[in-house]
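Re: the pair you flagged

First of the two:
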Amino acid sequence: MEQHRTRPQQHGPRRGTPPPPLPPQGGRGGAARSARPSGPAPSSRPVGVGAPARGPAQRRPAAVRRPAPPVVQAVRRLPNPRLTGLGGGLFCGAVMFLLGCLDQLLFGGALTMYCVLFLPVSALTAVWVRKGDLLTAPVVVPIAFAVGLLPVAEGGGIGSRLMGLITGLATQAGWLYGGTLVAGLISTVRRVRLVNQRRRLRGVPIAR
């Protein structure tokens, strides 16, 4: 009997036929990539129990500034010139001379009115003098007081006018010292603030 040889079946692809296309993200690399989560990798750094959660920075409410008193606002509206030592002396002397003439015309040479007006003029002179000439304010203020006292002093001739000037300076010495003290205090405060400001700019600690 003849035995028919059975040819084993070939399960592989036939010759001449193209291989089937690979699926997307095939292979080991694709499987590894598909297994990874799409979001950001969690941090391996342990988070403390009491650590606050990081969120958007909370803005602090801006501090509301209170309006300055009316007196301070009025002072800020005043002109703020810068006078030299000579300019401060001329300013104070001219103003006091004009005030003395007005006092003589309106009030008959009242020394009390003249002395009261001397205090704000002394303060303005010390405020308006520039920083480099702060020490000149307490010096020019008494001179201006004497210059402005000439039209107020009693007497008709030159000799009697000089005697009236000396008498006025002697009797009104308290007002003279008061105006000089006001100018000296304002100049001292400005000088201290100027020194502290220079130390802050240089980084030197201020002794308290």
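Second of the two:
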Amino acid sequence: MTYRSWQPEHRRRRPRLTRRGKLALLVGAAFAVAAAITVPLLLLDEDKPKPTPEKLRTLVIPEGWRAAQVYAAVDRSLGLAEGTTRGAAAARAATLTLPAAAGGNPEGYLFPATYPVASSTTPESLLRYMVDTAGKRFGTDHIGAGAQRHGLSVHQTVIIASIVQAEADTAEDMGKVARVVHNRLARGMALQMDSTLNYALGRSTVDTTHEDTRIDSPYNTYERTGLPPTPIGNPGDQAMTASIEPAKGDWLYFVTVRPGDTRFTADYAEHQANVAEFNANRRAARG
């Protein structure tokens, strides 16, 4: 008979862990600590406030503005030195989706609209947005077919629309001004538009002198027949529509005698009387 030695429970030897057992214990402990740390971190990350979306500003380009005015407005909107956007237009002309007929000149294709401006906006991105918008507006089948009806290209129609935009005193007059342009072109007459002289001289005025009409410029439509070489501003939808769908009439002359009173006629003597009334009103206003 074998007797076992008895020892109190608290003095019994604890089992020794093997190397594998120690490793398992350490890994388990590490996992428990990691889990205890990771879960709160994940919860804290979810509780973080989402970044507030940037509040966009806007840049309004009115109908009829010239490229020079658009460039200056972009410079001001982006807080850039004067001339920065003009330089970008010249340097990046190849990246703008301009029609080949434009010859790399954005004039006429900086479509008038309201454009979003963010902190990441650049002159190039804004100009590209404007040109792309013009491409969508002017590249429709409706515009193309309308230009063809008059024996013109879309680019020539944009030139006419820029003149209509500059000359018409009201939206209602646009179709009549467009008709005068088409009638004169059909007869081989010089357009004799003050707006093209103003473009050549870099100004905007209703007072044109005889000296102005003798300047040597391709935009002098008093001395040269046909259309000027480029648009003289950036027309909107109404001016483009008027250019392909002009009002019906035989008018060859018009003058805005006073704001809201533009008179159209095919009779030169009547036109001269209207011009005399315009001049009298101008003298009275100055005097």
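The beta strands are 57-60, 114-117, 253-258, 261-265.

-B.
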